Structures are given as C-alpha cells and as structure tokens.
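Example 3.2
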Amino acid sequence: MIYETNSRNETFELGKKLAQSAGPGDIYCLSGDLGAGKTAFSQGFAEGLGVEEDVTSPTFTILCVYETGRLPLYHFDVYRFEEPEELDDLGADEFLYGDGVCLIEWPEKIRTLLPADVKNIVIRKDIARGEDFRQIETDFDS
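Structure, written as tokens:
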C-alpha cells in the first residue's frame, strides 16, 4: 500500500491510523533516511496505541518501553549498531516475542535476526514534490 503525506501532521496521523490494527506480537520495521519522518510517524503510531508518554526517537537509549497504551510499545532505534548481535545484549527476544508491539527504526541493521513475518514501512522524501512531501509504503493493509 502506498500513502502520500504533505506535512508532519499528516505523517503523524498516518502512523496513528496504522497503529489501530496493531496486535500483540506484531513487529513493524520502519525504514527511511535521516530526516524522512520516522519520529513523526512513530509519535503518531504511539498515540494510535494510546501511549500517554512523550515519544522521542530512542537513538541514544536504543529502546524505549511504553506501557500506558492498549498494548505495550517497544520502540527500538538500532541506528548506532555495528553488528546485528548487539540486539542480543538488550535481551530483545523478550520484546520481539512478547505481548506488545515492536516498532524498529533502522531495521536493515538487524534484519538477519528478525522473524520473516514483520510488517515493513518505508518513508521516502521527494523534495521535487515539496519539502514536506513523503511517500510511505507498507507491505500490509491497514
């Protein structure tokens, strides 16, 4: 499915909408260049799950756990990983195979460790169509 957004708020709202169908054990892999809108999407996704805390990109903490929504949200940012095995140091199996929802930014860094049935989301900028234009592609229906 391909979506187009023209503002940060539209990207946020799409994340919120896609979270409505999230279920326990779902793993969403969120790809896109720096500045593509992953944080805006993630914030909307969290709101769509009912998360009440402020959501920021966990670039330096690697994992943020939010438990105030209808399902726990495990928000990973593995941008700084050098090797996929660094995921094991977090005890990630508890989250990847738990009862919550995983949202993983920069999944290409750990793709070999992820199950085959992840849900992929790719955000692309196209400056020719506007500074805030985003094309957001998923391999699942909302």
